[in-house]
Design a protein that fits this description.
The complex is a heterodimer. Chain A is mainly alpha-helical. Chain A has a single domain, classed as MetI-like fold (Orthogonal Bundle). Helices cover 72% and strands 2% of the residues of chain A. Chain A is built from 12 helices and 2 strands. In chain A, strands 1-2 form a two-stranded antiparallel sheet. In chain A, a hairpin with an 8-residue loop joins strand 1 and strand 2. The two termini of chain A are 20 Å apart. By secondary structure, chain B is mainly alpha-helical. Chain B has a domain of 174 residues: Orthogonal Bundle (MetI-like fold), CATH 1.10.3720. Chain B is 76% helix and 0% strand. Chain B has 11 helices and no strands. Chains A and B meet through helix 1, helix 3, helix 4, helix 5 and helix 7 of A and helix 1, helix 3, helix 4, helix 5 and helix 6 of B.
């Protein structure tokens, strides 16, 4: 960067620009994570009220919590549901993003607005709408019953399938937009060149289009998988006691039972696993510069 | 016939997928006209009563006011702080760039339940006095900053450096170049970042739920807590109005951008 100013101000300016925002992130992102870790190694205050804990650095809390099947099950379901929702969202979003980027013509801006439009309606209301759509009185079950494909007492809600469907739906725009962005930047002459060289349209897609869209696919899968694995709104509204995800447990242990150490152990474990997965995934996918 | 099919199958798919995306929006709008009883899950008949008395349901309008207040303040603070970081990253060389990038990336790679519960751990350790409006505002600014940085940084990176060089060639000093050339060119990115920050803040349930204490309610938290006993149709009315306003803002923005682009070419 060719800056015209004096050397002194050139070296100070970026730090002055960074300071307030980075300080905010340090105090309200990094410090809370330390608090969470500290809270995860606390034990109940002897003779104290429920919700009163002392700092005893009992790291065995992690072993205790993570050896209980109900908590392990909730963690496992979180990652399984998030994985299935991410795959489903990818399968739905890729052709949609492709159609908008390369086939929509003059309707492109309209289609893009419609992709983000669901965000303008409250997340919880959108999820409740799926409860109505998938419920026993809803149109999906009604149609299946009219075709005599399912028994009369059949219902999709509440179930694991409904939770996964809700997660897929709610994070679909996060999957669609990055894939669209990478396809929209693509030089379409590359496809023509591949076809000129006698590649079939399928081979051209596999060898040219798909690799070019990979950064979008990586970003989209992360933007879907991360919030889906921590979500508990869908599991709460579309599931039942057997579909609990780790977010539900953290929420109820923190806000209902005042069991801060257990909630902190689970929350911290979720974050540690996700960060590990993200770094491995980003390494393997070969897109180092995400920000 | 088969040629027509292969030309249009993707377009037909796109329309169906968009219909799927918008189906819950249609449900939300439709049930704002429902003769709701205790719950508003089953269609009972058409009425305008919720539209005629939007604030009739207890606490709903207070919750919307709180959401607007938090949303506007969080957007203002996060947009200023995030834009400053974006300029530092996009226009300056400095040590610690990769640490900065990491600290911007991590909040976006952390699930909301972790952000919410870790902030609650902090505020509980501090005695719980900040829970409520202050804690919610501090939290919303925190998770909006990274998204502002990413959005504004992308805009700065896409600028043609020749425009700023041209300004300097015409004897504009650094300050004039920034105020008259760089900032106006980055402005659409800043506006997009502010819109994104506002919509993230306005629709946040999880982080707000952890840090709002028992006496402070935002609109999403109102819907979430009342989902157990039944959401009043007034919430659907407000959500539908918000949808219309947001759609109008985006469409007007796109039309303006298209007009400006045409003006530049002509």
């Amino acid at each position: 960067m060719a800056e015209a100013s004096a050397v002194g101000s050139r070296s100070r300016t970026p730090y002055l620009l960074l300071l307030p925002g980075m300080a905010w992130l340090a105090v309200f992102f990094v410090v809370p994570l330390v608090s969470l870790l500290m809270q995860s190694v606390q034990t109940p205050l002897p003779g104290g009220l429920p919700g009163q804990y002392e700092q005893t650095f009992r790291f065995a809390n992690f072993v205790d919590v993570l050896s209980r099947t109900e908590f392990l099950g909730a963690l496992g379901r979180s990652f399984l549901f998030a994985l299935l929702a991410t795959v489903a969202a990818l399968l739905i979003a890729y052709p949609l993003a492709y159609a908008i980027a390369l086939r929509a013509g003059r309707a492109k801006p309209l289609f893009l607005v419609l992709v983000v439009a669901p965000f303008f309606v409250s997340f919880v209301l959108r999820t409740i709408a799926w409860r109505q759509i998938l419920g026993a009185e809803g149109p999906v079950v009604g149609a299946l019953q009219a075709l005599h494909l399912v028994p009369s007492n059949f219902s999709i809600y509440p179930s694991s399938l409904a939770v996964i469907a809700g997660l897929t739906y709610n994070f679909l725009p996060f999957m669609t937009l990055p894939i669209y962005a990478s396809l929209d930047r693509m030089d379409t002459r590359l496809i023509e060149a591949a076809q000129d060289l006698y590649s079939s349209s399928w081979t051209a897609f596999r060898k040219v289009t798909l690799p070019i869209s990979m950064p979008g696919v990586v970003a989209g899968t992360l933007l879907t998988f991360i919030p889906a694995s921590g979500d508990y709104i869908n599991a709460q509204l579309l599931g039942n006691a057997t579909t609990t995800m780790v977010g539900n447990v953290v929420d109820s242990r923190f806000l209902v039972n005042s069991d801060y150490p257990t909630a902190s152990v689970l929350s911290f474990t979720l974050m540690a696993i996700i960060l590990a997965m993200v770094f491995v995934y980003v390494r393997r996918a070969g897109t180092e510069e995400l920000v | 016939m088969s040629g027509w099919w292969s030309r249009n199958v993707l377009r037909i798919y796109a329309v169906l997928a968009l219909g799927y995306l918008l189906l819950p929006v249609a449900y939300t709008l439709a049930f704002s006209f429902n003769q709701a009883g205790k719950s508003n899950l089953i269609w009972k008949g058409f009425t305008l009563s919720a539209w005629q008395g939007i604030c009739d349901a207890p606490d709903v309008c207070a919750a919307v006011r709180n959401s607007l207040l938090v949303g506007m303040l969080a957007t203002l603070i996060a947009t200023v702080l995030g834009t400053m970081i974006a300029f530092a990253l996009g226009r300056h060389q400095f040590r610690g760039r990769s640490t900065t990038n990491l600290l911007i990336f991590l909040p976006m790679a952390t699930p909301e339940v972790v952000l919410g519960s870790s902030l609650l751990a902090l505020f509980v350790n501090m005695g719980g006095g900040l829970l409520g409006f202050p804690a919610v505002l501090l939290a919303h600014v925190m998770f909006c900053i990274s998204f502002v940085v990413v959005t504004v940084k992308a805009r700065i990176a896409s600028l043609d450096p020749r425009l700023e060089e041209a300004a300097r060639d015409l004897y504009a000093d650094e300050r004039q170049t920034f105020m008259k050339v760089t900032l106006p060119l980055v402005m659409p990115g800043i506006a997009a970042a502010a819109l994104l920050a506002f919509s993230l803040s306005f629709d946040d349930v999880i982080i707000t739920n952890f840090n709002s204490g028992s006496n402070f309610t935002t609109f999403p938290k109102f819907i979430w807590t009342s989902s157990l006993r039944g959401i009043p149709p007034q919430a659907n009315v407000i959500a539908s109005l918000m949808f219309a306003v947001a759609l109008a803002v985006v469409v007007v923005g796109q039309i303006n951008a298209a007009r400006r682009a045409k003006g530049l070419i002509a």
